[in-house]
Amino acid sequence: MFAAAAAIAGMGIALTAQPARAAEKDRHCVVNVLTGAKSCYASFTDAVAKATDGRITDAPDGSRAVMSDTRLLNRLNAGTATKASAGAAASARISVMYKDADFRGDSLTYVGEFDCTPTLADVNYTVELIRPEFNAEVGSYRALWGLSAHLFEHRGWAGGLIGFAGDRTDPGVLDGKASSILWS
Asked: What is the DSSP string of 27-87?
C-alpha cells in the first residue's frame, strides 16, 4: 500500500484528503393525522409555529430544549382546537416524535383537528403507518395534552408493543422499530 502511494506521489499526482462532509441539519416536520397534510422545516422553531397555527413563534430551535421548557410545554398543551366555526380547521398538538433518544434529532409533530380527552378510556387519534421518513425510526417521543402514546412494531397496530406513556426518552424494545401509534 505504501509502495503504491509512493509511486503515485512520484508521478506528480498529489493525494488529497476528502473534505469532511458537513453534518446535516435536523429536519422538523408537522403532519395532520386526519388529512395527511405534511410540511417540513429546517428549524424546530418554524415547525412549532406551523403546529400552533402561528400562535407560538418563539420556541427554541433545539428540539431537546423544548422538552425541558415548562412554560413552552404549558403553551403547547393549552386548548386551541375547538372546531373552527369559520370552516378553517384549527390544530391541536398531539405528539412530538424524535428520531433519536433523549428528544434529539429530526422531529415529527403530529397535529389533529379537535381537542383530546386526557383519559385512557377512549382513543383520540391513530396513525397506522408513521410517515415514511420516520417509519421504524422513533427514538423518543412526548405526547401532549395529557395524552399517552401506545406504539406498535407493525402497521395496523400489530406485533410488539410498548404500553401507554406520555413520553419516553427511549422506547426500549421498539427503539427504531415502531410503525403505528394510537393516542388515548
From this structure: -EEEEETTT--EEEESSHHHHHHHHTTTS-----SSHHHHHT-HHHHHHHHS---S--TTS
